[in-house]
């Protein structure tokens, strides 16, 4: 246990000083002269990271004052560290603490949405709220970091497709399908299937991290758009319940979905090498077009010391280069795969809107 604690670094305290401010950031152990680290930075300049999960909105709720533009040591994420880490886009989670359900979940999610828009509006030189792959690329070309809204919890719908449409109109683009009666251990109910179809029509992506095996199987069968696992690694390497077995990874690859590997010791292990092992495994089983990155910073979890905050992505890419990853595969991992999934959701939505009107179904009629 002592060895594990030595390798972990939990950020977020007021006294934490990010390694970004070191005069000479150290190279990974496998890159003693720093050659791979410099190459990693060059690749990331062309193909920045699209980070699949940031817990920043909830973390900011508890701060009386912050400035993400100048730097904020009380959280893992700010604009200087995002730029140092070559992060071009990130999904800001609207997940809520356990115990907030139904109408309280709707209100709390709306408050999260409002907070995100306020934060982005207060940092216009660094951040830009976007909804599509094209808007994310435009933001990057303008020197801004693209912020996408989601994932939110399925409980935030309060079993209402009208609420889903309202959240989408406010910018929501990812919904986690777990923890509700219509997407539980026994899979999707008839209403749950209708939710997925309406998500397809709107362009809201399904996040299946933490969903039951039966729910995953049914969503893969029903959805015409790609699906995400925003925080899942390889169960063959680490038996965490949110990690994916090889048969599911293979199925995800066949469906051209996306498994976004979290940088957390609980799911991937306490080192950069352990995270890279999971990326290797997912790439091998699901394919290079189906693997992405999920920082999970500011989500209340520990991180490996060399991946302690959003500035450290070049260290992970340097490790992958050391293992023989090509620039084309790294470009897919960091930026290309998220762009493909976002474009897939938009294409599916445009096609669905030509043949399907907004659904008026309700849970009482379908599941009662």
Automatic annotation (TrEMBL):
Coiled coil: none annotated. Residues 1-34 are annotated as: Disordered. InterPro entries: Metal_Hydrolase, Pept_M19. It comes from Streptomyces spinosisporus. It holds the Pfam family Peptidase_M19. This is Dipeptidase. PANTHER family: DIPEPTIDASE, MICROSOMAL DIPEPTIDASE. It comes from the Bacteria.
């Amino acid at each position: 246990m002592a060895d594990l604690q030595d390798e972990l670094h939990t950020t977020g305290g007021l006294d934490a000083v990010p390694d970004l401010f070191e005069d000479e950031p150290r190279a990974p152990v496998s890159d003693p002269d720093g050659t791979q680290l410099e190459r990693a930075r060059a690749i990331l300049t062309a193909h920045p990271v699209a980070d699949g999960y940031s817990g920043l909105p909830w973390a900011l709720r508890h701060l009386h004052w912050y400035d993400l533009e100048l730097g904020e040591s009380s959280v893992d994420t700010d604009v200087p560290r995002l730029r140092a880490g070559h992060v071009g886009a990130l999904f800001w989670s609207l997940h809520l603490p356990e115990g907030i359900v139904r109408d309280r979940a709707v209100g709390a999610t709306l408050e999260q949405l409002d907070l995100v828009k306020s934060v982005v509006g207060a940092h216009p030189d660094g951040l830009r709220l976007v909804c599509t792959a094209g808007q994310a690329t435009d933001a990057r070309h303008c020197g801004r970091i693209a912020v996408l809204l989601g994932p939110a919890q399925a409980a935030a719908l309060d079993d209402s497709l009208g609420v889903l449409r309202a959240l989408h109109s406010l910018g929501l683009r990812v919904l986690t399908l777990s923890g509700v009666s219509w997407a539980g251990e026994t899979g999707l109910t008839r209403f749950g299937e209708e939710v997925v179809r309406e998500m397809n029509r709107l362009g809201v992506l399904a996040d299946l991290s933490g969903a039951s095996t039966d729910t995953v199987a049914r969503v893969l069968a029903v959805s015409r758009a790609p699906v995400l696992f925003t925080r899942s690694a390889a169960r063959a390497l680490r038996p965490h319940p949110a990690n994916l077995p090889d048969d599911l990874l293979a199925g995800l690859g066949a469906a051209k979905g996306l498994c976004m590997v979290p940088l957390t010791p609980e799911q991937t292990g306490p080192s950069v090498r352990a995270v890279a092992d999971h990326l290797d495994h997912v790439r091998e089983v699901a394919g290079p077009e189906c693997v992405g990155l999920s920082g999970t910073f500011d989500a209340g979890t520990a991180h490996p010391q060399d991946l302690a905050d959003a500035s450290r992505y070049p260290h992970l890419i340097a490790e992958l280069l050391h293992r023989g990853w090509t620039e084309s595969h790294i470009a897919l991992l960091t930026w290309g795969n998220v762009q493909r999934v976002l474009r897939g959701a938009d294409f599916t939505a445009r096609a669905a809107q030509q043949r399907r009107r907004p659904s008026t179904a309700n849970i009482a009629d379908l599941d009662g």
